[in-house]
Amino acid sequence: MSGDDVVRIGLLGTGAIAQVVHLPILSQMAGVRVDAVCDADRAKAAAIASRFGISRVYRRDEEVFAADDLDAVIVCTPSHMHEEQAIAALESGKHVLVEKPLALDADGAARVIAAAERAGRTLMVAMNTRYRPDALALKPFVQGGELGDVFLVKSAWMNRKVRVVRPTWRHRRATAGGGALMDLGVQVLDLCLWLLDYPPVARLVAHTHPGEGMEVEDSAVLLLQLRDGGSISVAASWSLVAERDRHYLRLLATRGSASLAPLAVYKEVEHGLLDVTPQLAHGNENLYTASYRRQLKYFIECVRGAALVDLPREQIELMRLIALAYRSAEEGREIEA
């Protein structure tokens, strides 16, 4: 890190997630500066650099990795590029935050984690739903056993239907690795498993619905049976016909229940039911933006050495389960995990 204690960041990719989330948040953070932006479309990168006051514009990611004054790299490129770019950034001595998924499969995720271990650098995956204020408030109830044994977690992320005029990288299997399940479902499944500390999975079954005008599914449903007898269900869709997107989670346990969006926690007591829902600070920022702000803040703290984060080894298991889900859908049967 530079002598002025400013964390200098290079950003790979200038798509929606970079423009709508990362750059607006990072530009407001004290002691942080995005010093370089890189995109194959240099004109687009230059326009975004001008908008956010970024000094350097690159077309080749190798130029970012070679910049010795950069402390960290944030990878916001299409999914098939994540593995190679994350490894190269780590090997160049940079701390790395990667948009999900970490890689397109479990082996790729393992290779990135091994690179981080060799480099001794921070590696985080942008599973931002873990950093939602309501999710952070719920987890202690689950971890501490206050609600009893969890036997069902039901969750979904369904986005409003948008007509695909011209398919993008998200709609091609080679570049995205999958459709709604890989885009939205992977985030929701990670949240469910994270709340339960990534329990062993016994078997799973999945179904997908083909998207119109694209190579990948526009909707998917996944059911996992855990070895302890519990179950997790996940639904993901790009084709919700409604006024707004839907993202929810419901958790049932032997002595209580809970939900996200909205946050609610109930537990049984001797004489009935007790509402133990934590009171969160109310602000104007939505939960999605707040989750990214918290995650980026924590990443910067890790880069500074003020916080520690374990290597995201659970992402290997997550991508293994996603691969099994696609196999289940293709073969039309339940798969032993």
Which short descriptors sum up this protein?
10 helices, Rossmann fold, globular, 337 residues, 28% strand, six-stranded parallel β-sheet, nine-stranded mixed β-sheet, alpha/beta, Dihydrodipicolinate Reductase, domain 2
Concise synopsis of the structure shown:
The protein has helices at residues 16-26, 42-52, 61-65, 82-91, 106-119, 133-143, 173-176, 180-195, 287-304, 314-331, and strands at residues 7-12, 32-38, 56-58, 72-75, 95-98, 123-125, 150-160, 201-210, 217-226, 231-240, 246-253, 256-260, 264-269, 272-275, 335-336. It is of the alpha/beta class and 337 residues long. The protein has 2 domains: 7-126, NAD(P)-binding Rossmann-like Domain (Rossmann fold), CATH 3.40.50; 129-291 and 317-336, Dihydrodipicolinate Reductase, domain 2.
Structure in words:
- There is one protein chain.
- The chain has two domains: 7-126, NAD(P)-binding Rossmann-like Domain (Rossmann fold, 3-Layer(aba) Sandwich); 129-291 and 317-336, Dihydrodipicolinate Reductase, domain 2 (2-Layer Sandwich).
- The protein has 337 residues and is α/β, with parallel strands linked by helices.
- Helix 5 (106-119) links the parallel strand 5 (95-98) and strand 6.
- Helix content is 35%, strand content 28%.
- Strands 14-13-12-11-7-10-9-8-15 form a nine-stranded mixed sheet. A six-stranded parallel sheet has the order 3-2-1-4-5-6, sandwiched between helices.
- It is globular.
